Amino acid sequence: MLIRNRPDINSNEITDERLFWGRREWLASVGAVVAGLALPDIACAQANETDKLTPYEAVTGYNNFYEFGTDKEDPAANAGTLRPRPWQVVVEGEVKHPATYSFDDLFKGMKPEERVYRMRCVEAWSMVVPWLGHPLKDVIARLEPTSKAKYIEFTTLLDPKQMPGQRRAILDWPYVEGLRMDEAMHPLAILTVGVYGKPLPNQNGAPLRLTVPWKYGFKGGKSIVKIRFTETQPMNTWQRSAPNEYGFYANVNPAVDHPRWSQATERRIGELFRRKTLMFNGYADQVASLYSGMDLRKNF
Amino acid sequence: MTDAQLIRRVIKPGLWVLGLAPLAYLLNRARIGDLGFDPIRTITHFTGRTAITILFITLTVTPLRRLTGWNPLIKVRRLIGNFAFFYALLHFLIYAVFDRELSPVGLGEDIAKRPWITVGFSVFLILLTLAITSPQSMVRRLGGKRWQALHRLIYVAAAGAVLHFTWAQKKDIRLPLIYAAVLAVILGSRLILRPPRAVSGER
User: Fold this and answer.
1) How far apart are CA A63 and CA A71, in angstroms?
2) Is B36's CB within 8 Å of A270's CB?
3) Is there a domain that residue B116 lies in?
4) Is any Cβ of chain A less than 8 angstroms from the Cβ of B38?
5) What is the pLDDT of residues B7-38, one digit of tens each?
6) How many domains are contained in chain B?
7) What pTM value is reported for the model?
8) Range of the domain at A150
9) Residues A191-205: what's their mean pLDDT?
10) CA pair distance A234, A219, nearest whole angstrom
């Protein structure tokens, strides 16, 4: 392209110093996360070149959370009816400590970590979000699943009083999502409790939600009230709703299109043109091995 | 004021203002930064819905004429129809430029592989054809009968546009269904308000 043939420009001519140091700071935070996970340097390089944090206003103002309405602005407008405290989570199924945990008991003694993740929606838009959360594997370890537990299922609150969108059967409520156990044990998967250093706003799935950055956003069940360990693969809500369009895995994959639209590109919120979608949302180096030998076209 | 003067001096200028109002509204929202977090999506949806709405209004001219018996109304139909095309053109261009960067491969793939885009693009081609053949000179060149047959494609375009709109939804199709119901009423009214059998155009 023409742009590449232009003479080099000194960076101080184009980058405002404040921005430059801001980026340094952000790089350091990404670095900390990456270091904490012992991820390859490549992931860091991939992240810092073109990924800027999506502003807080967009992260908390542009959401898919059908429990509060189907428009992107609906959750921010309507989620005030949700009461995220006190909150309880039922743990059941193939697990040694089935019980009803309070939010505080579930995470007792754990400190949330900041994780800057790309978030790719199945609708082909994306964000970069500084989540605050607990590694799911640490919570699972505490709950001690039995050897029969092959999958884990997350159920969202069912309460049309708190979630007015549930008064219409647009989806089969309550919202259910699931992971294979090895996916759930992956260090990148987190139970998210905050964003931008603050507790999770209602419209983002307060008080706790799932974040699995290499999968399409809908895999991240919100406002979770039940965690169930199972021997059989859970039926997640979108798959139940349209099995030809949404599968169980829902890994971000630019080579496998949605039946109605291309997944090869995405629009980063804040940008006008689309960018290329990365395999496993750019986390291929960390997660591709989970799916070796699998036909990702069939297991979409 | 004669009917012709009323059309030329009052109704047509009024329609120009009304026809450009959605664009002015959109530009003003852009000016004050009120296009939401994904402006391209907002603009795409807005221009698409506006095109369908104006297409519907075009289809109400004939029933309205039969209802009121005021035949000069037919003289404004072309202008309204061309505004529908104008917003369809904006809708297509925004998509082609920002979603496909005018890539012939990308556009071709979408049109060939994705039925809802095939339908949407077909509607666009119909409206383009109707806009090109809309001047009086084209009516004369094609001959009244052939011209009329060609322009009956507007029914296909209207139904296709609603189908395209419905198909574009991820899950919630309430709004497109409302559009479909409105279209059904407009088309149904033609069955009730039959054209006068008399040859005479007198009132």
Assistant:
1) 8
2) no
3) yes
4) yes
5) 999 999 999 999 999 999 999 999 999 999 99
6) 1
7) 0.87
8) 57-251
9) 98
10) 12
